[in-house]
Design brief:
alpha+beta, Pdz3 Domain, 2-enoyl-CoA Hydratase, Chain A, domain 1, five-stranded antiparallel beta sheet, globular
Length: 419
């Protein structure tokens, strides 16, 4: 039988891929590495472990937010989206290849221990984090309620690392809380964006103003690590009666989406100050960016985290899943905040207000013997309550700004005349 004619040598342009589009040489190298590990690694490793590690590596090297999720991690992600899980209550990410705190969740072991955005986690139960993927670190911090966890932390302002021991809890976090700061001035705190956050926000706004519009509202998005995109658009929609909230662009047409406000707005006109800081990320930045670009609110605080990408969670046939970055999002003005963040309109850093104890004597009209009473027959009295700013300087400044806006925008009445 005559020998088959020799195939011409393959060029770099047309030989690098087979009919399926895969680079043949790289596939062969992968198979070679796989085989050498199986044959020569110091301990025996089964094929399933090697393949899963390879898939994890594929995802982890794309960006800090893409990951391969085994069945347990897939379930943990679902639980955190719904707002219930067992752990210490912390959102983390990779910054300069170092595991870093994005934000602690309100009223959790991490928040009560004083962990702050920007704290670097050097070790988890003695295991150095520089040897862990993001998903592996998250899995180490999750665990049975009541069990203890030791974190080694380094804060930028501290010369030496410190160790904190936390007890894991079954965390059922409510993403929305609210209260009146003063009559007419409300406070709405969103700690993260869960599946029901939009509905909870509308309920809170209605409860704050049962008898009519508020004179002003502080929306607190500090240390909010983000969450569900649709919930973020619902929250922004509660304050916007029209216009673009956010849009996304990806490689696939299905990843290009636009979210617009509708007319069913709960608080379209209330003066609004939004508090942000370095722990405000992702969905929190969507809300802040929309309200800023639409000139609907004044942003106060410090620069946000700068996560401007969208992840989809894709289930796999074996019960595992992928968390895959599929698009970037853009604020209504067309700006991507990826790796940049959103700048506040009014820059206010964390601080502490020292309140005088009143020991310095000051003479007032009411101290004079025989002083006239107020026209209604009673004496005018000042509130002796502690100012909001004594506990939270940024919040106090936000309240002061709202009061100023209220004075400026208040409709002018006819000049009063004496009876």
């Amino acid at each position: 039988m005559p020998a088959s004619p020799a195939k011409p040598p393959l060029s770099a342009g047309d030989a690098a891929q087979d009919d399926s589009g895969l680079p043949v040489e790289d596939v062969q190298t992968f198979a070679e590495v796989f085989e050498r590990i199986k044959r020569a690694y110091v301990e025996e490793v089964d094929d399933e472990t090697l393949l899963r590690n390879a898939m994890r590596g594929m995802l982890s090297e794309l960006d800090p937010h893409s990951a391969y999720l085994d069945a347990d991690a897939f379930e943990s992600l679902r639980e955190s989206t719904e707002g219930e899980f067992s752990g210490i209550g912390i959102e983390v990410g990779l910054r300069d290849d170092q595991l870093t705190v994005i934000a602690p969740i309100d009223d959790t072991p991490a928040a009560r221990a004083g962990i702050q955005p920007g704290d670097r986690i050097l070790a988890i139960d003695g295991t150095p984090t520089d040897s862990l993927t993001l998903q592996e670190a998250v899995e180490l911090m999750r665990g049975e309620a009541g069990s203890e966890l030791e974190l080694t932390l380094l804060r930028g302002s501290e010369p030496e690392p410190r160790t904190v021991t936390l007890a894991r809890e079954s965390i059922r976090s409510e993403s929305v809380s609210s209260r009146l700061l003063e009559p007419g001035f409300g406070y709405l705190r969103i700690s993260q964006f869960q599946s029901r956050t939009g509905e909870e926000t509308r309920d809170a706004l209605e409860a704050l103003a049962p008898d009519g519009p508020l004179d002003g509202l502080v929306l607190d998005l500090r240390n909010n690590p983000g969450g569900v995109l649709s919930s973020a658009t619902e929250v922004a929609d509660a304050f916007l009666s029209s216009g673009l909230i956010v849009y996304t662009e990806g490689r696939l047409g299905s990843d290009d989406m636009r979210f617009n406000a509708n007319a069913a707005t709960v608080a379209p006109d209330v003066p609004l100050v939004v508090l942000i800081n370095g722990g405000s990320a992702s969905a929190a930045e969507i809300v802040a960016g929309a309200l800023k670009d639409q000139r609907r609110a004044v942003l106060m605080g410090t620069q946000t985290f700068g996560k401007g990408s969208v992840q989809q969670v894709l289930p796999l046939g074996n019960g595992d899943g992928l968390k895959l970055t599929t698009a970037r999002y853009y604020t209504p003005s067309g700006r991507s905040i990826q790796a940049e963040g959103i700048s506040p309109d009014v820059h206010v850093v964390r601080g502490r207000l020292e309140v005088e104890d009143g020991s310095d004597f000051q003479l007032r009209e009411s101290d004079l013997r025989g002083h006239l009473l107020n026209a209604d027959g009673s004496e005018a009295r000042n509130s002796d309550g502690t100012p909001v700013a004594a506990d939270d300087y940024q919040l106090g400044e936000a309240l002061n700004l709202l009061k100023a806006l209220n004075v400026i925008q208040r409709p002018q009445a006819e000049a009063p005349t004496a009876p």
